[in-house]
Design brief:
The chain has about 190 residues and is an all-alpha fold. It is built from eleven helices and no strands. The protein folds into two domains: about 60 residues; about 90 residues, Tetratricopeptide repeat domain (Serine Threonine Protein Phosphatase 5, Tetratricopeptide repeat, Alpha Horseshoe). It is about 70% helix and about 0% strand. α4 packs antiparallel against α5. The protein is elongated and about 80 Å long.
Length: about 190
């Protein structure tokens, strides 16, 4: 029995691999997870540039599922920075951007831009027309009629434009739309 104790005591104990190499753990409570959570908090706080830097630091050391999520967050942050970095010299430039967003299917961003034009330039008939198109495409009939009515009131040429605009296809069977485009002349 004494021999067994002596043999066990004389064996060299080796630390686990992580302790030997000084590497960090990638478990759910490890530094990678903590760094990931800190980066997510930066996104939630609207600190997009710092969040991108934090997520990029994780890419070479994180497990695959965190790398995938980090890339998604990086793209989201970049999109937010691009939105905030937009600067338009004229309301027409902003309108062109809004139309590009409408064509891309980003209806929320298109509406925000068109409404922003109207906030800054309340007499911008083309922004009312753009909203009418957006509302037609998204099935908001009454909003379409209201916006188109304002656009025509501000600039009667919008009536002629709307008559041949395919974006109002969903409105052609509505008698209110027809009356707006083809009013009876007394």
């Amino acid at each position: 029995m004494t021999e067994a104790r002596t043999a066990a005591a004389s064996r060299k104990k080796t630390p686990p691999p992580a302790a030997r190499t000084g590497s960090h753990s990638t478990t759910a409570t490890g530094p990678v997870s903590q760094q990931y959570q800190a980066a997510v908090q930066l996104v939630q706080q609207g600190k997009f540039e710092r969040a991108i830097a934090a997520f990029e630091k994780l890419l070479p050391v994180a497990p695959a599922e965190i790398v995938e999520r980090s890339r998604m967050y990086i793209a989201t942050c970049q999109k937010q920075l691009d939105k905030h970095g937009l600067a338009f010299l004229t309301p027409e430039e902003r309108y062109d951007y809004a139309v590009s967003q409408l064509n891309a299917g980003d209806f929320e961003e298109a509406a925000n831009q068109l409404k922003g034009i109207l906030t800054d330039h309340p007499t911008a008939d083309f922004a009312h027309y753009g909203l009418a198109v957006l509302y037609s495409i998204t099935g908001r009939t009454q909003d379409c009629l209201d916006s188109l009515s304002k656009a025509i009131e501000m600039n009667p040429k919008n009536r002629l434009q709307a008559r041949s605009d395919n974006d109002f296809q969903s409105m052609v069977d509505d008698p209110r739309f027809t009356e707006l485009l083809y009013p009876e002349v007394p």
